[in-house]
Amino acid sequence: MSKITRRTAIGALGVGVAGVAGYRYLGTDTEPPVRKATSTGHNLASIENTRAGSASWRVTPDDPRTSKDRAGQIQGYASTTSAAHGDALAFHVSLRTPQPFRIEIHRLGHYAGSGGRLLVTSPRLDGGPRAAPRPHPATGAIVCDWPASWELRIPGTWLSGTYLAVFVAEDGHRSCTPFVVRDTDRSSDVLVVLPFATYQAYNQWPLDGRTGKNLYKGYARPGVVGNNKHRAFHVSFERPYSDHGLPRWSELDISFVQWAEQHGYDVSYATSVDLHEGRVDPERYAAMVFPGHDEYWSGPMRDVVERAVSVGTHIAFLAANNIYFHVRLTDGDGRRGARTVVCFKQDEDPRPDANGPTTRWRDLGNERGKKRGKAEQGLLGVQYNGILATPAPLVVREPGHWFWAGTGLRDGEGIPDLVGVEADGYDRSMPVPEDAERTLLSESPYGDSWGKGGGRGRRIQNTSLCEHEDGTLVFVAGTFHWSLALTDPAHRDPRVQRATKNLLDEMLARHTTA
Description:
This protein is of the alpha+beta class and 514 residues long. Helices cover 15% and strands 27% of the residues. The strands form eight sheets. A seven-stranded mixed β-sheet has the order 14-10-15-17-28-27-24, sandwiched between helices. Strands 2, 4, 5, 6, 8 and 9 form a six-stranded mixed β-sheet that branches. Strands 13-19-18-16 form a four-stranded mixed β-sheet.
């Protein structure tokens, strides 16, 4: 297992800003560039979270008033995944029964535990049924062309954040759709990036027993879910998310958002589509955090993260199976930017781009033709290695590392059920980050459950921290349950909370000189 040199000296410095005044980039005799002081606890997000919140943003799947695809009581989508101040954002809504409805716009955060704040409610709107289109015969794409029901121009006073549009029918049925208000012209300590490309890859709207497709499956025949043979190659943002409207695994992102804003971090927000379309300058941020399931990446998205590491912006991935599939994002109808995610996986890709076909990144060669040259481990330090049928303990390694400081954890101690859903680990046959030392902070055995015959045997999960020669950190949690352990009542763990705070505080400290 690789170790970071000078760990003891660095750990002794602590995580405070003053403690890094004399910190020199590893392997050099030069001081890091002077950065602005961090703004934890004294920033726009911390001020915003002092405002009165409301729990009315919650649209839960088990509520009898929540819309279901088979009935389609009320569903809608936004015209873009993110919008800047002054941008017009349209909402396209369908109701099974003609009736009035309204749209509520909520910003998600902590807000003294309520988790959100209602900002505005639309006028009373008239709604009715809209057709669910048939899948495209060649690509499987399902593209709604519903007229706009309401248009909102983003006020200049709205803080960058994760937002939720909640659609409320007069008969009480509800659903929602997420979007981000971005402010990429403002520097913040932390940029939180939400995985909208992956959201769409898993979206099988409509789950009506006959029509819906995503990048994994469709219906083999009415009422029977099929497999890869029935999936789509293109998935469009021009449609609602299934049932209640929150994308699959978005609870990971929401958990981190609530925790980060509770702890007063200076955060702003963007989406994976913003990375793709070149709106994100990583030099504006001390750290970029990817809190959720972030599996589907275009070449331009990955370029931003590689540039971030090269300019000293720290990176944290708080889930697993990151940067796994290479995709293309296309403009769909050409009017609203990237609105379609394309991934052919094991099928022949008719239009490979400069990075190659839309298959796994680890199956692509680099620019020098090296086999597996673009494997995600070469950037992240670990990579996806399996699926869990039931959660397993995360077994701690390197308990003396500053990452685990204050947790009270011992070497070999397990944090129950922290490794869940999918896991990452170190693969000796794959590339490793250049000019970096990697520390494996966990070594967690688990049984892989994917595939015929009950799985692929015993695997090892690793939480990884890579430190580049200039001090830049790249962290990968390697499990889906990490972000949930920050705030979710069923998973919350104070040791994970403390370790995450250690990580962010260290990243901010290294980005600042006194």
